[in-house]
Amino acid sequence: MRQFGTTIFAEMSALAVRTGAVNLGQGFPDTDGPPEMLAAAAEALRSGQNQYPPGPGIPALRAAVAAHQRRFWGLEYDPDGEVVVTAGATEAVAAAILALCEPGDEVVCFEPYYDSYAAAIALAGAVRRPVTLRPASGGRYAFDPDALRAAFGPRTRLVLLNSPHNPTGKVFTPAELALIAELCQGHDAYAVTDEVYEHLVFTDASAPHVPLATLPGMRERTLRISSAGKTFSCTGWKVGWASGPARLVSALLRVKQFLTFVNAAPLQPAVAVALGLPDEYFAGFRAGLQARRDQLVEGLNDAGFDVLATEGTYFVTADVTPLGGGDGVEFCRSLPQRCGVVAVPTQVFYDDAEAGRRLVRFAFCKRPEVLSEAVTRLRRLA
Ligand code: PMP
Ligand code: GLN
Questions:
Q1: Would you say domain 2-30+280-379 falls under CATH 3.90.1150.10?
Q2: What percent of the chain has pLDDT over 70?
Q3: What CATH number was assigned to the domain covering residues 35-275?
Q4: Residue-level pLDDT at 325
Q5: CA 319 to CA 334: how far, in whole Å?
């Protein structure tokens, strides 16, 4: 694992603390989640729910996960056998890859990719086959369909898909999902979907979020992953889950029992409460983030960045070329000194570093006054 060094998130958050810069690097909200959820967690702590919960998660949370997927996506999962609670989406992704891959198997993924993917694939002794997302028409990211076709082969074990996508803010379109589903079935591969931003697709996105598991023939071969961290602004809780056909979920659970065994007993009933909140919570959460996206995008445009479209997630990416920065890593290292803001270089999420060399990512999951201060500082670059 030596090649993986320290994650960029830890490096950039440390830089923000050291320099007193506004941290738009690591994606975490600076407000707490819904009060009903916080109250339920406090109550669970006080009422003695502090010992090991059941291996797959407490029944109330598994039932809430299943009900939530039925409500929003029309997907049916049996809470007993088709849902497992994990230590965040991160553990679910790692356990899924470890469960499904033999050494030498290939994992098709899209770059830039969330940084834990490469590490989890390496831990399994598997090989990643990245397909590159590049800025295309309308400032939206796209991939070459032939590159995706070429990435699939006889050793393909699974495709790992993150949509809505971190760091680009891309929402995969129905046509793109259809091609992924076709190739997946044609190669008899599994799909592992990371949908932690499932509720963060903005109203002006070119497509709504569509879980890959809802496409014909996909539910039976897909492990669908999400987590509470983003939807309920509790990234430090690390409560996630995976759903899928029983044989895939039990394979994942076999790995999970030796990674963490179980997790977060008193937080599980609280997340169950949050998943049952009315539709207005989810719509209000999205609308709030969309307004903050607009606030940051306007500031970045004023500062002179070449800002790319973002249709979902916590993030927006921008090309630093107009600001005289040819290299995103150097740009991000000097940004605190230049104007007191921290961002993350997108380059580190690419195997093909050249493809992401000039791109940086800013997080807008911050209070309006924090974004306003960041924007004031960034405008000094203009
Ligand atoms: N996947 C993606 C795409 C993410 O952005 C993140 C960061 N929240 C995770 C997984 C990790 O989620 P968790 O904190 O629930 O492990
Ligand atoms: N998901 C968050 C991000 O992309 C933070 C992840 C982390 O710190 N590991 O910024």
A1: yes
A2: 100
A3: 3.40.640.10
A4: 76
A5: 16
